[in-house]
Amino acid sequence: MLIVQKYGGTSVGDAGRIKNVARRVVNKYREGHQMMVVVSAMGDTTDDLIKLAREITNNPSPREMDMLMSTGEQVSIALLAIAIKSLGPDVVSLTGPQAGIKTESIHSRARITDIDNSRLIAELEAGKIIVVAGFQGLCDSGDITTLGRGGSDTTAVALAAAVKADMCEIYTDVDGVYTTDPRVVPDARKLDSITYDEMLELAHLGAAVLHPRAVECAKIYNIPLHVRCSFNDNPGTIVKEECDMEKNLIVTGVTCNKNVAKLGIFGVPDQPGVAYMVFKMLADRNISVDMIVQSSMRDGVNDISFTVSQDELRKSLETIEEIIKVVGATGYTHNAHVAMVSVVGAGMNGNPGVAAMTFGALADEEINIDMISTSDIKISCIIKNGEAEKAMNVLHRRFALAEATNCNCCA
Ligand code: ASP
Ligand code: MG
To answer: Is 311 part of a structural domain of the chain?
Structure first.
């Protein structure tokens, strides 16, 4: 088999852990598999590099930031290749550009546009283990780019697609994907499998175990992902198109995102083109808006509320001041002390009652719901920040997520 493995920053956090990864890779290689390994920067290296640049200036050039940040992964590939070689096998480390990874010409969050796999195939055919630096590529102008924080997952999946790997294993410091955050809900359960769509929602809604773009890429190229722990041999979670046993689960997971802030604009004139104006002005400033709720019209005006990430609150408030003048609204409010809790599950599509069950669980704990948004496979509620943990626990209990059998057929 041709196996792509990805090890995150914690898994290669020090020399001992790098040797541990080398042993795991070499064991698989000796079983007769072709091996390609993607690694992140060691521990908090990327954060430390960013801090260092900020000590010099608040406004570093994006090109040089990518040059700087890409060095973290370069340290990891060299050390891992050294560790693998010391165990015997032939190995070669490659930076993203050397591995043929081409990206858009955007710094700090480039998307992969193409992978020239000729070098990769040649090295694999020569019997070598390949170690590739995650999170980086080369743009048309010949400059190094990075893929956005957490981007090494995406590198691994894209490489797996480019060499038609049989399997893509994502190694991390937890045993797999859980029904919710085990630090908040002690009886959170590890899922044996989950669909791409569910994983995508969970990843977007705050589950940090997989990067959303990696999941998107895996779905497009239909590459099953195996999320597992680099410190033990426990089976992890398989992410794929369909989940056999758990297909009938109504709800698969509960997430919470505290990096949200809520904004409301009052007295927005009820005329065509006004919502366009509001959200165009936000988009023009690169502010990404998540939930949007518009109240029904009264006396010719509406209220429009929406959420943004907390990092963009300041920019959003400045923009709102302008919006109010342009559209002739009467005022605005904001609240950063909110959290978004969500329940996710492919089985809720066509299952009436999930929304009622969600709201009922929150009501029983006297948790007030500020905003609601839904899709086919998720229900998200904005609540008070301080009630997030209580909400996660009650929802996890209400949907019996600690048990593996909370499905339609057994309910
Ligand atoms: N080292 C990069 C980061 O910390 C990429 C990654 O870990 O996937 O964001
Ligand atoms: Mg990292």
So the answer is: no
